[in-house]
Amino acid sequence: MADNRYKNPPPGPSANRPAEGRPAAAPRANAPRPAAEPAPAAAPRPPRPAATNQPKAAKAAAQAQAARAPRGPRGPIPGVAGLKALVRDRRFHLFIGFGLLLGSLYLTIAFTSFLFTGHADQSVVAAMGTIPTKEAGQESNNWLGLLGAWAAQLFIYKLFGVAAFALIPIVFFLGYKIVFRTATGSVSYVLALGLFTMAWLSTLLGYVVVALGAPAPGADPALAHRLDFLCGGVGFETASWLSSLIGWGTVLLLAFVLISFVVFFFNITTLPFNFGRSAARAEADEDAELTAEIEAEEAAAAAAQARPLAPKPTPRAPAPLAPAFAAEETEDEYAAAGASAPVEYEPAPQPSPGPALSVAGPLAVAGIGAPAVALAVAPAVATGAAAAAAVPLAVASGPSFSVEMPEPEPEVAFVAPGAPVVATVPTPLSLADLADGPPAPSPKPQAPSTNLEITVPSRDDLDPNAGAAIAAVADEVEDADAMPDVNYDPTLDLSRYQYPTLELLTDYGVAKAQVTQQELEANKDRIVETLGHYGITIASIKATIGPTVTLYEIVPEAGVRISKIKSLEDDIALSLAALGIRIIAPIPGKGTIGIEVPNAKKEMVSIRSVLGSEKFARTEMDLPIAFGRTITNEVFVADLAKMPHLLMAGATGQGKSVGLNVILASLLYKRHPAQLKFVLVDPKKVELSIFNKIERHYLAKLPDTDEPIITDTKKVVHTLNSLCMEMDRRYDLLKEAGCRNLKEYNAKFVLRKLNPKKGHRYLPFIVLVIDELADLMMTAGKEVETPIARLAQLARAIGIHLIVATQRPSVNVITGIIKANFPCRISFKVTSKIDSRTILDTGGADQLIGQGDMLFSAGSDLIRVQCAFIDTPEVDRVCDFISEQQGYSDAYLLPEVAGAEGDDGSGQDAGDPAERDTMFEEAARCIVLHQQGSTSLLQRKLKLGYNRAGRLIDQLQHAGIVGPFEGSKARDVLIPDEYQLEQLLNSMPK
Ligand SMILES: Nc1ncnc2c1ncn2[C@@H]1O[C@H](COP(=O)(O)OP(=O)(O)OP(=O)(O)O)[C@@H](O)[C@H]1O
Question: Which of 248, 323, 589, 693 is 20 to 30 A distant from 6 in Cα terms?
C-alpha cells in the first residue's frame, strides 16, 4: 500500500530502510547566522543620571567617561564573554561563510549523485552505526562517500525529495552573504522562499506519487515505488494525509496555497489580465480599492501618530512635470515666429510605493569599514513614547561586528568611535542581517540627522559596559524625536496623482506672425510723418511684432525732448487711425522711445502654447503663473509666491475671468494637490463654479460647509477670518520651528526635523482668489477689508497668497489700505484714465485694446502682456482630469471660526455653555499653567487636532482667559494663576 510505504518498506535493496518513517532527530543544518544566539532577555538599561542642563553631547561624553572608569586593561575574557568575542570575530564569520559556500557545493554533488546511486546506498546508510564506518564507506556509491550518501538520503529520501535541491541556493546565499557582506537580498526572504518551495513542491510530488500508487484502475504501485524519492518522506506523508482527507481536492488546495504565497510574498495587488470586466465593474472595483487604500492610509497615519518613531515608506522624489520636447519641426516654426518652443508634458513617472518597511525604529549607520560600535535601543514602548531602554548589546572589534538583538526587532544605531552619527537608514532589519555586519548606507545619502549627533570619544566605549554612552544615544533619540531619515514626502498620500497633460488643452496651431510687411512699412511711415509735423526728427526706427501690438522703437535725433513725444500720443493715434496706442518714453533700460501700435489682425495666445513653453516647463518658481506673451513674443511667467499678492482690475468683458482661469490652470499644471490649496470666492456665483470638481484635490473650505466655492458674503467673512486664524497658527508653528518662512519650514519638515506630535505638519500654499471685490466691499465693507488687509500684510511668509479681482477699480473698492498691500497689479482694459491710475498708479490701461490685452505692474515695471486664452471647455477638461483621480477624503479644512456654522457671524457659539468643548476646563488649566495662549500648545499637550484646539482657544478668549489674536505672537493669558482660574471656572454657567 502506498499509504504505509514508509512504515513497511518493501523487500529488496530498499528493505534496509529504517523501519519507522522518519529518523528520530535529524542533525541540524549549519546554523547560518552565527550571531543568532539567544539575546540577553532583558539587559537592564543603565541607570540614567538625573537630568541636568548639560548639553546632550557633553552628557554623553560624561556618561561614557563614567562607564570607562572602572574597566581594567583589556585581556582575554573568560566564559560567555570569550564566546561572544569569538562570535563577533570576522575570522569566525569567514570560517562559517566559506563553510556554507563549500557546503552548498558538497550538497549539490551529493544530491546529484543520489539521483543515480541513492537506491543502492539505502542499505549502506541504514547499516551506519552497526558496521564499521570504513567498511560502510567502501560500500557507498555516492560520489561523496558515506557522508554524501547519508546527507542526500536524509534530505531527499527522508525529508523533501527532489525539492531538497532548493536547500542548496539557501546555503549558498547565506555563505555568500556572510563572506561578502553583501546588502542585496534579505535572509528572511530567501529562507521563506526556499522553505516554501521545498514544502510545497514535495507535497505536490507526494500527491503524484500517492496517486500513481493508489488502488485505482491504471495505477502502478511499482512505478510509484520507483518515483518515491521525488517527494521524500515529508511530501509523501503530507500528501497521503491530504489525499485521504480531501482526495483530489489536494491539487486545488495546493494551487490555492501557491497563489496565496505568490500574492503575499511578491506583494501582488493588481493582475496583469482583466477578463471581461465591464467598465462599470472595473470602476466599482477601483472605487473599493481606493476606499481601502484611503482607510489603510488613515490607519497608517493613526499608527504613525501613536508611534512617531516608526519609519516612513521609501522616499519618492517629488513629481515635477517632466518636459519632453515636441517634434523638431514645431520647434523650428516657433523659432521662426520668434517664440519659445513648446514642450510636451509627460507626467513624471510615479514609482509605485515600495513594500512596507519592517524596521521598528530609527537606524543610524556610520563608519562603514571603520571600527564601529553597534548600539541597540530596545523597542519603544507601546504608547509610542520613545521611552526606550538602551541595552548595551554589542561590541565591535575591528571593522566588522555582529550583535545580539532582543526580540522584537529593536531600534538600532551604529556609530563610529570619534565620529558623529551621520545618517539613519531604515532597512528591513533582521537578526541575520545584523549578523552580517552593519547595513550598507542608503544609496542616496539623506540629510545628516543633526538631532542625533553624538560623538563616541574612543574605542574604549566599544565595551559592553559602555551603557552610559548608549543611554546617551537613546536620550538623544528620544529627545530629538528622531525619525528615520527617509525624507517626508507630502505627495505620498496621492502618490499616483498625474498632473494634467497638454492634450487636454485646445491646440490652435502654431502661432504665426499676423503683421504683414506692408502694414509695418505703412505704420512706420505714418509715425515718422506725424512726428515730422511736430518738428521731431528720428534717427532710427525698429519694429518688434507682438501678438497683439507691434512695438516701434524710435531713437530721436539729439536734442528732442521726450516729454514732447509723450504729449503727442493722441495725435499719433489719430494719424495712425488706431485705438490703443501707448507711448513708452523712454523704454526702461533701453534709451529708446516705444510706440505700441495694435496689429490689424490680433493673434490669440493659446494657453497650450504658454504652458507648453520651455520657460514654463523649466521654471523653478514656487507658484509659477504663465500669463501669456509679452510684446516681444516671449512667454511671460511670474511667481505668485514672490508677488506676493495680486490685484486684478479690468472693465467688464476685457478678459478678467479668462485671466483668473489662466492663473488657476498654470498652478494646477505645476503643483501637486499636497502642495497647493485654493480658497475660491465667487460672489458672481458662476465664474469659478467650474472648479467645484477639484474640491477633494485642491480646494480648501470651512469645516461643515457643503459648497467649497464661497458665494455668500457672510461665508466670505468667516472664510477670511478663518484664513487669519490659519495665518496665526502658521506663524506659531514657524516660530516654534525657528523658521522665517514657509519654504524653510517645509524643508525642515520634509527632513523630519519637526515633530508632528508637536503640531507640526506640512503646510501647503494657500491661494485665496476673490473674483469680485467690488461686490464684497459693497455688502460687507470693513468686515472684508480688514482681514484682506491683514492677510495681505502678514501672510506673505506663511504661504497664503491673495488674488483679488474687480471690475471697478474705484477708490472705495480698492482702498488705500488694500492698494498699499498689493504691490503687484494687473490691469486689463479699463474705461477711464482715472481707473487706470487707481489700479496702476499711471495711465495706460485705458489705452489697451481688450480681449486679454493687459498691463502687468510689479513696482515700477510696467509690462504689456497678451493674456493667454483658455476656454471654459478646456478648464472643464482639466478639472475633469484631476477630479477623476484619487483625491483626499475631503477638501482641505480651514480652522473653524466662531459663528461659522450659524450664519449670524456673531461668534455667540464660543460663549454658549452648551457648545463649550468638553476639554474646555482642561485647556484653560493648561494655558494658565504654561502662561502661553497658543493653539499649538493645546494641540501638543492635550493631543488635540488642529481645528479643535483652535475652537478651544476661541472659547477661552470668549471666557476671558486669553486675550485676542495678536498676529504672529501668542495670545496674552489674562488669568495669572490656577487659583484664580478655578474661581473663574466655578463662577461660569455650566
Ligand atoms: N486672453 C484672451 N485672448 C483672447 N480673447 C479673450 C481673452 N480674454 C478674454 N477674451 C475674450 O473676451 C471675452 C470676455 O472675457 P472675460 O469673460 O474674461 O471678461 P471679464 O473681464 O471676466 O468680464 P466680466 O467681468 O463681465 O465677467 C471672452 O469671452 C473672450 O472672447
Answer: 248
